[in-house]
Design brief:
7-stranded antiparallel β-sheet; ConA-like_dom_sf; single chain; mainly beta; Jelly Rolls; Regulation of enolase 1; DUF1349; UCP022704
């Protein structure tokens, strides 16, 4: 799927080979709008591909998070004011599973991740105005991370994202990127 992706804020250092995308983040990059901090940043790295009106996308993420707010995962984006990002983010001294939903302004939700944060899977599904985020430690069991309303549109952009608001130099490897029709499984179906 990476062959159909295009960069928003292309990093200085990246390469794509053998179905793996390797990225090193640029300095002070982030996706955030207004809430709490009062500033807007839209300079994080996002490698998105087009979708139809509904889809499920998942990917594997490997990284070593070392500094405050180091983050990597999946993003669904309509434009600079309508998007969601979800993945691992370093905060309060340890990696957390988190998501930021931005519909004009950003929110932020975090919680512990029970698996190995340096190697995890993340999934986003959009169908009929509903966004579902799931995370997995093994690519087989997919507990729900977030369920929320999301704008209905004929197409979205989805793909890997990463950023380092406090530094540069986070090395991230993305792989096993797939995009298909919405799974539309029962809310508590973990497969």
């Amino acid at each position: 799927m990476f062959e159909t992706c295009r960069w928003i804020n292309e990093p200085a250092h990246w390469r794509l080979e053998g179905g793996r995308l390797r990225v090193t983040t640029d300095d002070h990059t982030d996706f955030w709008r207004e809430t709490h901090y009062g500033f807007t940043r839209d300079n994080g790295h996002f490698f998105g591909c087009p979708t139809g009106p509904g889809f499920t996308a998942d990917l594997r993420v490997r990284a070593q998070y070392r500094e405050l707010y180091d983050q990597a995962g999946i993003m669904v984006r309509l434009d600079a004011t309508h998007w969601v990002k979800a993945g691992i983010e370093l905060t309060d001294g340890r990696p957390h599973l988190g998501s930021v939903l931005t519909l004009g302004q950003s929110d932020w939700a975090t919680g512990p991740f029970e698996g190995d944060a340096s190697d995890f899977w993340i999934r986003a599904s959009v169908s009929e105005g509903v966004l579902k985020l799931q995370a997995s430690a093994d690519g087989k069991q997919w507990p729900t991370l977030r369920l929320c309303p999301f704008p209905v549109t004929p197409s979205y952009q989805v793909g890997p994202f990463c950023c380092t608001p406090e530094r540069q130099g986070l090395d991230v490897e993305f792989s096993a990127f797939r995009v298909g029709p919405p799974l539309n499984k029962d809310l508590h179906d973990l497969s």
